[in-house]
């Protein structure tokens, strides 16, 4: 009966949660890492737990990227903050033409965080890293006082060598190039929002969070130098990538609204909420600018990959005195698409 | 007179602070980066603001490290969270024998953070990076709602190539090797604590936060292969490094209390607070294990460097059936030094 006494219950509540002392760098920190984190992420680089990991990279140019993840809630339909952190970082490397090699993982935990939640997130990190073909090579864990943090935030950095012969950059984009997106848009942002707000109507919407490494590898293999620019449309959505593209290439972007892949559930939910799907975050999609003569090959490569089945060519770049993004609407009208000003959906990644 | 009206005051209060929309990935995010962050950290790698930075590293082995910084307050005597983040990361690379090359910088800002404070921290990051000889190559900025964050947290990752011919590792440590510390201990932890608690008695104590790159370069040049192991005694202090060393090398560590460099102010403050200086964090010190025949040369190299003027040999490694750390006290007694259990001084880095 002891297990049910108030004192035992209180004890078990404390034992199942993160304490400030877990972040002190002492014995409890060592235990937390050795028992709950390192074994799950196990690999030869991480095991020594030294101050930094030693990577054997082929000589050449190396890409480095970082992202901080503050998504709320940390678990949502289709994923969680751990999967998001791994995928976001490998995707940033992949769209630059790099082969993701290793990640660093920094956790900031709030005192009182349930250890069971931490366990699930670490499991998810391990699974996503395996899926993406990378290792977590080094990390850091800090704890902040109750109500001074926000449950769990994760910052990952990633490194990987640039693939040989790949040249990606906005400066290679020309009028006549086509714009391709690898699948249905706006799923991640709406999935997180529905989880946060407890919106029942959109339970069918799941985050698209996924590592794009192998999809991008297929696209580059199919399109060669015809693939000129890649970007994953996360915060700010497709609208932000297209605005960057127009400005960077000093061209106009024309997009056919009817060509943009989007599920009926997402379209209707966004409409009901008064949100523009073009500005909603994606975490498993890639926008590509491709020379027109390579477009069919790249599209075919996408469609034969599980993550690119709904890929579509959505528009093109055209000469223009003003670098604008124009959406040709379903009824044939034209509207200017702007970079969203601020935060329509905060804390989405 | 308009400038003094309540509405104008309220407006200026809002304008001088971080808004949620600064983290949305849209126009305000772009402005924040373009106006307040990128120009100060200006370098060729960061300027393109792509998803990842392209580094030209010499071929060979690359070190990768990361740290999350949650220090409170973010400004303290002798430094701030920005200087701490840069120094902590370059020092983690340096003690592994790497030449720090580039950093990533992820900021998590709390809504309402004063822009003036952000400006000071970014200035401090720029200055510390210059001092350490590294560039901030890539970054990310997120904003969390008021009271869901803690002002400003920073996560940095760092990469750098391993110096040629350097072999550092606990497995090279042998009985007879000596232990050296590059200066006075426990200054960072006490400086932060005094700033946090408003303790007037210790205004003389300033954080030692500094980049150790050039000091470690001098030590390696002087000691060659005789330098076997380096570690910066941050969270957990000297006690934690010595405990790791005893366990890792399966030897006993003997330290002479009277040989450990410490200022009178630190010693007395720690005593008054009932804290053991051996467990208090440092951010500009290095512990080295050196072959006895290289000890004089390494000590001399330290002492001729501005950051190593108070360097001292504090102990040695001896054969023992039990891997313990023993402190030989000023009066000739012996006490076992343990890895601190949890958090004596929380949020110190």
Explain what you see.
- Two copies of one chain form a homodimer.
- In chain A, the strands form three sheets. Chain A has a seven-stranded mixed β-sheet. Chain A has a four-stranded mixed β-sheet with strand order 2-7-5-6, with helices on one face.
- Chain A has helices at 6-15, 27-37, 81-95, 115-132, 187-197, 213-223, 237-249, 264-273, 295-303; strands spanning 53-57, 60-69, 75-76, 79-80, 102-110, 135-144, 152-161, 178-181, 227-231, 252-256, 287-290, 312-318, 325-328, 334-336.
- Chain A is globular and about 70 Å long.
- The longest helix of chain A has 18 residues, at 115-132.
- By secondary structure, the first copy, chain A, is α+β, with helices and mostly antiparallel strands.
- Chains A and B meet through helix 2, strand 1, strand 2, helix 3 and strand 5 of A and helix 2, strand 1, strand 2, helix 3 and strand 5 of B.
- Strand 2 of chain A pairs antiparallel with strand 1 (53-57) of chain B.
